């Protein structure tokens, strides 16, 4: 399914807005530009509804309809029958339990973690029940954050320090709240977070996993400052592939094991700004939860820092940002009444040393689509039949980000 109709909208909206509502009219257009989203089809909807016995009450809703991508290569990579369900569970169960626990613990408004956009309806099939598998009829209806003045950052340039601090602080609380549920409500955690974090099938065999390695190594070799590290990077990529194929090689340490976004980069967060200063972000929402897993929290943190920040952030502010993450992480746990004595700053540094190397291949691979120029990527999801279709030649943005990543990973002993 790559479209949506009036009957779809009414059946999706009625559980939230009331059985008596009628969709009087709606418009639909593509929300995202080429290169901004590969895992789904995104539609911007303007929906006019009428309700009430006299049908006199009219309201307009600006929504986003998230549909699965067209069948083909992307189904193999993103496994929509599982990943679409995982995202829906985030909105209908994980979000609810986060809010419930914070209200029970009287978390103050200024520290209340609320990174999920509002969900207006969801289905995994044409059945009214949310099933164990999704199909091509999957729909997720969310509030349109763009209409609420949320904006994306510049993926090629990366986020400045102010935006990075906000993202890191809220990411820490997003992770900590899951751990609080694990400690305080283990059965609820199992029924919500762990269910949403169910493993999915990447769909690639050994040969396909390694097909992109020559391309990635070539990027390293054409950067003069990094060419000498090509063999070390190759070894790091091979270790990462082995770990992806065999998860038992690097099992998560329970202390920091939590819900992990796995795709936490610029295009998967949106910022709202101070009405008096459009350069000061005051809120953030996270999007695209299809590939969440149960793993180490620091994987999101390291992936974000090395893919999504401005050039000067890592060399000048790395230590500050790690401390900021730790402060927010432990503060969130304390607010829910959890014992934080085991979560020392050194324990976080040890966790980073263990799991930062696991992200090496992920970072290097994703820098290509993140830095790609929009006119060099496919104009339609149906055009994508391999990774080579998606990834153009490395540009200047990709080169400087790759250089920063490799030099810093080498310095820290991660590759």
UniProtKB/TrEMBL annotation:
SMART domains: CHK (SM00587). SUPFAM superfamilies: Protein kinase-like (PK-like) (SSF56112). Residues 140-335 form the CHK kinase-like domain. InterPro entries: CHK_kinase-like, EcKL, Kinase-like_dom_sf. Transmembrane segments: none annotated. This is CHK kinase-like domain-containing protein. It comes from Periplaneta americana (American cockroach).
